[in-house]
Design a protein that fits this description.
By secondary structure, the chain is an alpha/beta fold. The protein is built from 14 helices and eight strands. The protein has an eight-stranded mixed sheet with strand order 3-2-1-4-7-6-8-5, sandwiched between helices. The longest helix has 21 residues, at 330-350.
Length: 361
């Protein structure tokens, strides 16, 4: 039985697949199985994969393209034999000591659910990224936090953990569930929230993975119109995980400002979470999440009466909130539209002036 099951997802990365595979086979820690999951690649990826004869390699190819989440979930639940699960992507590269250092940490700290590493960002041509303004240049360089601090960070800032850097106990997937199929942009982020609701995690300071940043935002997480639109919606959906904070002491550890909503055994947890979310003002979707929780609480007459008695909050307070929380950015759009109309009106007037003045427009 191998100690680690490495799950390497592959789809049309013929330029990188061999480098990714070799970076696993060259690990200083050798007690692993490498399960390569090719999702019906149409380039030469499968032919390159098939050339490997190392007995630790198991290669599986889909006849039709399914989705990386489907392949990984199936591998975790039916194929993986290891106690630890490592996710690898076919365009990334591992440093040779990655698994050795991570296994040593998990073995020495049985209460830790997963261990991540810091990351080196590389370009399409494998050169080190030098653009310090690029989001991926340093986003994964994170200090260690308690699980409650991570949950607060996720809520206020978003994801900052690199999926292919993770080594996760298989038991964590059994306790927290597999990746959610309905999420295209944030299945890993959703997993980190669910993980930190139950387990502490650790980030090794060493940069043990080379994360490839493709040209023209070609990464699945690249900043494109459709990914920006979809990501905002999925962020809103993954916030539902915070409703799993069933004990007020846990809510307080994640959001210390929740203290003012403590009413001992009478505390309305979802109302408290909703009010805290509204106060954070992190993103429009965190505001919408909080507002929805408050609306839901007041929609139940019994809860509404208790909330009025415990917190002095009723429908009038709700209406005041919904009148100022512009969760759909309507006023921002209207103001922008009015500004543009004023600019166009001004330019239209100026175009009636002599042609010699056009260069001033």
């Amino acid at each position: 039985m191998p100690k680690i099951s490495v799950l390497l997802t592959s789809f049309n990365h013929e330029k990188y697949i061999c480098e990714a595979i070799d970076s696993v086979l060259n690990q200083t820690f050798a007690d692993f199985e490498l399960i390569i999951l090719d999702d019906a690649s149409t380039d030469t990826s499968w032919r390159l994969i098939s050339q490997y004869t190392d007995p630790r390699v198991r290669a599986i190819r889909n006849e039709v393209n399914c989705d990386a989440k489907y392949n990984v979930n199936n591998a975790i639940s039916t194929l993986a034999l290891g106690d630890y699960i490592a996710i690898h992507h076919s365009d990334d590269i591992w440093e040779s000591t990655k698994l050795e250092l991570q296994v040593a940490y998990l073995d020495a700290n049985p209460a830790i659910g997963a261990v991540f590493t810091n990351v080196l960002a590389i370009t399409e041509k494998s050169a080190l990224m030098t653009d310090e303004k690029h989001p991926y240049f340093s986003v994964f360089d994170q200090p260690n936090r308690s699980r409650h601090e991570w949950l607060r960070f996720f809520f206020c800032h978003g994801n900052a953990l690199c999926h292919p850097s993770a080594l996760i106990r298989k038991k964590c997937y059994e306790d927290c569930g597999l990746y959610h199929y309905e999420l295209a942009q944030l299945p890993d982020f959703d997993m980190w929230i669910r993980l930190c609701l139950r387990y502490d995690i650790h980030v090794l300071p060493q940069k043990l993975i080379r994360f490839r940043v493709r040209d023209n935002e070609a990464n699945s997480s690249g900043i494109r119109p459709e990914t920006r639109i979809r990501t905002a919606y999925e962020y809103y959906k993954v916030l539902r995980n915070y409703r799993e904070l069933s004990r007020f002491e846990d809510l307080l550890k994640v959001f210390p400002s929740a203290a003012k909503y403590d009413r001992n055994e009478e505390t309305d947890m979802d109302f408290a979470l909703g009010m805290v979310a509204l106060e954070q003002k992190s993103f429009s979707f965190t505001q919408l999440f909080g507002q929805d929780l408050v609306v839901e609480a007041l929609s139940d007459p019994k809860r509404a009466a208790n909330i009025k008695r415990l917190y002095g909050f009723d429908y009038k307070n709700l209406f005041a909130l919904t009148g100022v929380n512009d969760v759909f950015s309507r006023e921002e759009v209207n103001q922008l539209q009015e500004s543009m109309e004023r600019i166009y009106a001004s330019r239209s007037w100026r175009l009636t002036r002599p042609l010699r003045d056009l260069d001033r427009l």
